[in-house]
Amino acid sequence: MEPIDVFKALSNETRLNILEWLKEPEKHFPKQGAHLPKEVSYKGGVCVGDIQEKAKVSQSTVSSYLNMMQKAGLLESIRHGQWTYYRRNEEFIQQLAEYFKTEI
């Protein structure tokens, strides 16, 4: 884990909101359930387009944000056809919480 990358990723309000929204995707992305492929559930993540719509930023901006968060370890992605779905990397977030408890 590179703590500085995590801090950079979380230093933007929209990126922090995205991480919070993905904690409870059913609550924050209710319309997504209507168009999820059968093999995908909320546990498989949330579509980039739905995140972009909620964040009210351009597609390129949200893609950049999601990429940064994924590189920091906060998110995981999975591709289904032409769509990419993002979810929180809960294992990494637990490690981050432990880091805060023991190191900071």
UniProtKB/TrEMBL annotation:
<dbReference type="InterPro" id="IPR001845">
    <property type="entry name" value="HTH_ArsR_DNA-bd_dom"/>
</dbReference>
<protein>
    <submittedName>
        <fullName>ArsR family transcriptional regulator</fullName>
    </submittedName>
</protein>
<dbReference type="GO" id="GO:0003700">
    <property type="term" value="F:DNA-binding transcription factor activity"/>
</dbReference>
<feature type="domain" description="HTH arsR-type">
    <location>
        <begin position="1"/>
        <end position="104"/>
    </location>
</feature>
<keyword id="KW-0805">Transcription regulation</keyword>
<dbReference type="InterPro" id="IPR011991">
    <property type="entry name" value="ArsR-like_HTH"/>
</dbReference>
<keyword id="KW-0238">DNA-binding</keyword>
<dbReference type="InterPro" id="IPR036390">
    <property type="entry name" value="WH_DNA-bd_sf"/>
</dbReference>
<dbReference type="InterPro" id="IPR051081">
    <property type="entry name" value="HTH_MetalResp_TranReg"/>
</dbReference>
<dbReference type="GO" id="GO:0003677">
    <property type="term" value="F:DNA binding"/>
</dbReference>
<dbReference type="InterPro" id="IPR036388">
    <property type="entry name" value="WH-like_DNA-bd_sf"/>
</dbReference>
<dbReference type="Pfam" id="PF01022">
    <property type="entry name" value="HTH_5"/>
</dbReference>
<keyword id="KW-0804">Transcription</keyword>
